[in-house]
Specification:
Blueprint lengths: L9 E5 L5 H15 L27 E8 L2 E10 L10 E8 L8 H12 L2 E8 L3 H15 L4 E7 L2 E10 L6
Parallel strand pairs: 4-5
Antiparallel strand pairs: 1-2, 2-3, 3-4, 5-7, 6-7
Length: 176
């Protein structure tokens, strides 16, 4: 059984533009994990590509964060405003979320997600591929804990993949 207090010092740290290379390197682990669900190929240098990462430092409605545990980088979360699911441009979207394997199943991900939602009050959307059952269960539990069960959930199919979509609201917390 994981110890929920093993990592008491979890922080969300805005990623500076000068740290984009660090984010790119962490993305390699994320895309490697994700490649079990979608067909991702590496380039000639042995790297996965994520061509739109730089928009998180160019567009005002995108927010890149590192997850830090006891002062060490443990993952990242990329937030954007506007979901692309409909005309709603005001909802926040957890676009990408990653926790390094050594920090998983220790509430680092759940506590990080809760802190992001506290930091950005309003409507939220989280999408997860149905085939990624561990992630589906993680998000269902994490959102249920955060909202007290007050959320909507449905399935959509896009580009040949089925997604579970969660929609809920965050009241926000000033000290997040």
């Amino acid at each position: 059984m994981p110890d929920p207090d093993r990592f008491p010092d979890i922080k969300l740290v805005p990623a500076a533009r000068s740290e984009m290379k660090v984010m790119e390197r962490l993305f390699q682990f994320y895309l490697y994990d994700f490649s079990q669900f979608v067909d991702l190929e590496i380039d000639q240098q042995g790297c996965f590509e994520y061509p739109s990462l730089d928009v998180y430092w160019q567009e005002p409605d995108r927010f890149p964060y590192f997850i830090e545990v006891e002062g060490k980088r443990a993952g990242f979360v990329l937030i954007k405003k506007g979901t692309g699911l409909d005309e709603d441009r005001e909802s926040y979207d957890v676009a990408e979320f990653f926790v390094l394997r050594g920090y998983r199943r220790q509430r680092v991900g759940a506590r990080s997600a809760h802190r992001i939602w506290d930091r950005f009050p309003g409507r939220w959307v989280v999408r997860v591929m149905l085939v990624n059952q561990h992630a589906v269960e993680f998000w269902k539990k994490t959102i249920r804990e955060y909202t007290g069960g007050e959320y909507q959930k449905w399935k959509i199919t896009r580009d040949g993949y089925t997604w579970i979509v969660f929609r809920f609201s965050s009241p926000g917390v000033q000290s997040a």
